[in-house]
Amino acid sequence: MTWLLALVGLLSAVPLGLALADIAPDWTRQPTAPWFGGGVLAGAAIGWLLVRKLPLLPILEHEMTHLLTALALFRRPRQLLAADGGGEVVYDGRGSTLIRLAPYAVPTLTLLALPFAPLVAQAQRPWFVALLGLTWGYHALTSLLETRPQQPDLRQGGLIPSFVAVAAFATLLFGVTAVAAVGRMPLVERWLQLGLQRGRALLSLLT
Prior knowledge:
By secondary structure, the protein is mainly α. The protein has one domain (2-8, 32-200). The protein has eight helices and two strands, in the order αααββααααα. It has helices at 2-28, 33-53, 56-72, 97-105, 108-113, 125-146, 152-156, 159-206, and strands at residues 77-83, 86-91. The chain has a two-stranded antiparallel sheet with strand order 1-2. A hairpin with a 2-residue loop joins β1 (77-83) and β2. α3 (56-72) packs across α4 (97-105) and α4 (97-105) crosses α8. It is globular.
């Protein structure tokens, strides 16, 4: 299952990753792009401090992402454990590769905050985008630190397919949240259209 997820992720992430480069100039010209960038730097700094000084909080967030993914896949959670040395989520039903790898590729807090963007007044939008950047930067830093060979989650399905799957889906999810935070839906739609074009072009080369 991990190999299959890695393959699906690659088939999606390669064209969409190339499309990200295509829209990067438009993204940087958005008025809120500097606000997002400042938030990212602040979030990465906060993530670094938490990992070093309050490691229980990043561990709890990691386990909460397991839990939320389990709920999204209709698994009934039974137990959540978090301690300085690690954590665990227990749920009903069989195991899932998506649940196992989600904390390494999903910017959970950013995804939870994004739906509130339409409710934010225009005057307050730069500050909200900065907040999104802060959560994004936190997740980017902690995901990088957590994605290491010693992690049981990654070793369970094989290190190579796990790392490939995480890299592919992190490209997709971190990409779409960054684009949506700054450029909103019009830029997301353009990215997806360019990604589809890139995918067709790559497919034609292979056939």
